[in-house]
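[audit] Reproducing an earlier prediction to check determinism. Same input, same settings, fresh worker. If the tokens differ from the archived copy the diff job will pick it up downstream; this log only records the rerun itself.
[audit] input (111 residues):
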Amino acid sequence: MNTLIERPEIEQGVSVVACPHPFKVEQAFLTVEAGMTVAELMETVQPRPELRMHAHVAIMDTYIPRDMWPLVRPEPGAMVTIRMVPTGGGGGGKNPLRTLLQIAVIAASFA
């Protein structure tokens, strides 16, 4: 016999699961008041604007584009997932010629 175990929903708040830093695996679990916009929620989860630039947000299974953050307000009981994703920089793999030239310079410096 299959039994369905219901998860109690949060009636007054919004559940948030966040990874607030792009280079750390720490997770934050919190409940915030319903009525906040995604932009306000982001300021709560990650106060540093330079790290918020790397954020991706989903409410339940719906991705929320950055330009919609000031307009979208998760409903009470919703689950918001926030993930900071490292982007840009590094140069590895983006420009193979640059990588080869860097290897050549390093090899030449040893010679």
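[audit] rerun output stored. Observation attached for the diff report: The longest strand covers residues 13-19.
[audit] end
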